[in-house]
Amino acid sequence: METQPVHNVADVRSGRERYVPRGIATTDLVVSRAEGATVWDADGNEYLDFAGGIACQNLGHNPEAVVRAVHEQVDSYLHQCFMVGMYEPYVEVCRRLDELWPGEAPTKSVLVNSGAEAIENAVKIARAATGRPGVIVFDRAFHGRTNLTMAMTSKLVYKQGFGPLAPEIYRAPAPYPYRGVTTGDALGGLELLFKQDVDPASVACMVLETVQGEGGFIPMPADFVQALKGICDRHEILYVADEVQSGCGRTGPVWAIEHLGVEPDLLVSGKTLGGGLPLAAVTGRAEVMDSVHPGGLGGTFGGNPVSSAAACVVLDGIRTPEFRERADEIGRVIGSRLERFAEDNPEVGEIRGLGPMLAIELAAPSGDEARRVTTAAREEGLLLLSCGLYGNVIRLLPPLTATDEELERGLSILDRALQSG
To answer: What's the pLDDT tens digit per position in 7-37?
Structure first.
């Protein structure tokens, strides 16, 4: 289908400057349409999308089955607050999340609007279940932009000038092998935290991204996660897996923690869950979820019917053997190509990730080169995102339905961008 240029591109850009605060960082890209792995801008230019709206499009833009489910739901009703009148899509998402739980425990779920809101609710649930206030988070974490989740997030730009932040948040080291932080170092740091900052008997939960997202696409080593779960069990602390970015098939299986052989107490999902619509969830052991009194959880738009209808289709899609097979193949294709980039380019420090959730860390601890690469790639028609504590990591988030031709074309553009400096 031919894309017609939008004639008010200048108005959109000038309107952004006039009406949208500068605190929202944007590019000058004005989108007019998206489908599969492709985005078209308002000038008619075509881009391969390896950003996915920050990991929200694991099935690609506008997948037919999701769009159909949305249309069918819209024809019935747009909104029914679940606390006023129950509806099937909400319950069906929770049923599917129970079926897909990475363990044996029976579970329940609460549906909300965003990853940050879900993290907030996970902490509320953990505090109610344990009667304790403390929350342990880890270096380089990103958990959101609300007051509580800002306190849980590492990178200064997300919280600078917004204090005072929520109390009872304690930060521990996390492994970062490329920068010399081992599992042993991280566990030693946690032990020191327990000695000098917080009694484990006052900690409600530990919250850890299975693969750190904004922190640099750093997979948490299996031995570290297994050791943490053992520590949590020993001290009756709840283990919360933040899978907002790494979940919903991003690493191959539905949940990244399936790679590690650990069953969490609570699991937080979002981003791709709604198929492009706002939706997130907290899923956890039924007795933990039921520790909150009636009325303690909820929200006007939490588990919106349209988003929930989309999520049912998303969850059905990412659980199929065909999806997993294609995701694993994409991981192999991208991984092998990135390794060749590393051999040819001394500025590439490390290639890492889990399955098809992959990234390039540039050796210099500065965001300048990553910005140059992502800008050069966009000029050639490839959308990429940087991340990492230093802004020097280029992450790849193509749809896990992308074709071989699309992968090859995108990776070729990335190769040229890396070598153009």
So the answer is: 588 999 999 999 999 999 999 899 999 999 9
H/E segment holding residue 125: helix 115-130
Name the E strands within 244-317.
266-269, 280-285
CB hemisphere CA count around 241 (13 angstroms): 30
Residue 330, phi then psi, degrees to nearest 5: -60, -40
Neighbours of 343 (CB within 10 A): 9
For residue 287, what are its two tokens?
A: 């007795």
- Structure token digits, residue 111: 């549906």
- pTM given for the model: 0.96
CA distances from 80 to 77, 97, 118, 271, 307 (A): 8, 21, 20, 22, 12
Per-residue pLDDT band at 1 (split at 50, 70, 90): very low
How far is residue 341's CA from residue 239's CA, in Å, rounded to a whole number? 37
Compute CA distances 13 → 18, 31, 385, whole Å: 9, 11, 21
What distance in Å separates the CA atoms of residue 346 and residue 323, rounded to the nearest whole number? Answer: 35
Asked if 152 and 143 count as a contact pair (C-beta separation under 8 A), the reply is yes
Torsion angle in degrees (nearest 10) through CA of 394, 397, 403, 409:
-20
Report the C-alpha gap between 90 and 70 in whole angstroms.
Answer: 14
110 forms beta bridges with: 282
| Residues in Cβ contact with 240 at an 8 Å cutoff, skipping those fewer than 6 apart | 122, 123, 126, 205, 206, 207, 208, 264, 265, 266, 267, 268
- At 156, give phi and psi (nearest 5°): -60, -35
Q: Can you tell me the distance from the alpha carbon of 243 to that of 200, in angstroms, rounded to the nearest whole number?
A: 24
